[in-house]
Design a protein that fits this description.
Layout: E1 3-8, H1 15-29, E2 33-38, E3 54-57, H2 61-69, H3 72-81, H4 85-101, H5 105-111, E4 125-131, H6 134-143, E5 149-153, H7 164-171, E6 176-179, H8 182-191, E7 199-201, H9 208-214, E8 229-234, H10 243-255, E9 261-266, H11 272-281, E10 288-292, H12 298-302, E11 306-309, H13 318-325, E12 330-333, H14 338-342, E13 348-351, H15 355-365
Parallel strand pairs: 1-2, 1-4, 2-3, 4-5, 5-6, 6-7, 8-9, 8-11, 9-10, 11-12, 12-13
Helix pairs in contact: 3-4, 6-7, 10-15
Length: about 375
């Protein structure tokens, strides 16, 4: 039996984690022994990993976290103040290399000496599934024994603060790099032409059978909307997902007299407080409903009239593919993968990242 290990941060309710569930199911159906290694074992999607999957805790991350994630200058100052002169000299060297070479790869190589190997097992395949991620890419490249190693990219790399030096260093050891959208693949190939022969278009797997079954589940917190048209957005509530801009669009509609709508937000995240505060300050509580993170968002998709994805950037955007399954009219902003998914889908509207344009699109579909 062949063995594969997928490496990911955790199993939070998110697009990358949901994509992993589909890939894991595919490998299990083909008779593979499947392992999943995480920085933190937990998250709302953990319960959906099949019982056959062997779960591993990645060791060593906490020990080097402060070194690789915190700025070096304060660390150098602290070492000098506490008379740890050797540490100060070492950190100073890495700081100089960081500035000179515009990469932290030397620091990572030093820090990873403290990170143990995942196990003694030699896997047939090891996959850095949450790419691009400096720690996970380096971990798969240097701390897993495997006959073959892959990268798996879920984002437009120009929208993230990637470390090109670390990518070049880690991806040299990868025989294949899967990228979830054609647009994202084209961007990666232009940025890293030395790897273009290794990249493959690999869209996320949509488990239609499971989604259809989950959509029939009864949920207790469907808001009462009294015949109003329901707009739905599913995903992490964060700046890059664009919910705050969409809130401004909803405010414009309500102020112009459009009162027969309700916007449901399924998700939670770093921008939740700002969005909630804006909703209260502008008296939108009857229009905007925060429903929290849901491992099963499909009953809400069944009950919506329009699906809205206002993201700043995406890779594949798995929620768009899911909304298409339920034949919902879709509004999406101009992010990587949107046109690719929606070109042959009707009805849909792709708009610029502008609250007025989002409001206009809602009016059009209403």
């Amino acid at each position: 039996m062949k063995s594969v290990v997928f490496v990911i941060c955790t199993m939070n309710v998110g697009g990358v984690e949901k994509a992993l569930l589909g890939v894991v199911k595919q490998y299990l159906s083909q008779g593979w022994e499947v392992h999943v290694a995480m920085l933190t074992i937990g998250g709302g999607f953990l319960q959906y990993l099949p019982k056959e999957v062997c779960i591993h805790q990645i060791k060593g991350f906490q020990e080097i976290r402060s070194i690789i994630h915190n700025p070096l200058r304060p660390a150098i100052s602290k070492a000098l103040k506490t008379l740890r002169l050797l540490d100060a000299v070492k950190l100073g060297c890495f700081y100089s290399l960081q500035k000179l070479c515009n990469t932290s790869k030397h620091l990572y190589a030093h820090a990873f000496k403290k990170v143990p190997f995942l196990s003694e097992q030699i896997f047939d395949l090891a996959v850095a599934f949450a790419g691009p991620d400096s720690f996970i890419d380096t971990y798969v490249s240097s701390r897993i024994r495997a006959n073959e190693k892959w990268g798996w990219i879920h984002f437009d790399i120009t929208k993230f603060g990637i470390d090109s030096g670390i990518i070049r260093s880690a991806y040299c050891n990868f025989s294949r790099i899967n990228i979830v959208s054609l647009d994202a693949k084209a961007i990666f190939d232009r940025t890293f032409p030395m790897f273009c022969q290794k990249t493959y278009y690999q869209p996320n797997i949509i488990d239609v059978e499971s989604i259809t079954t989950l959509a029939t589940e009864t949920v207790d917190d469907l808001p009462s909307h009294s015949g109003k048209k329901v707009i739905l957005t599913v995903g992490r509530i964060s700046a890059e997902k664009g919910q705050f801009r969409a809130l401004k669009a909803i405010k414009k509609l309500v102020q112009s007299g459009v009162n027969d709508i309700q916007w449901w937000l399924v998700g939670d995240g770093t921008d939740f407080d700002r969005c909630k505060k804006y909703t209260i300050e502008n008296r939108l509580e009857n229009t905007v409903k925060f429903l929290g993170a849901k491992p099963n968002p499909y009953p809400y998709m069944v009950n919506c009239d329009i699906y809205l994805q206002p993201s700043e950037h995406e890779g594949f955007c798995i929620t768009l593919a899911e909304a298409k399954l339920f034949k919902k009219p879709i509004i999406a902003t101009e992010f990587t993968g949107a046109k690719e998914q929606l070109t042959k889908y009707y009805p849909h509207i792709i708009v610029p990242h502008d609250s007025s344009k989002i409001a206009d699109a809602i009016i059009t579909l209403l």
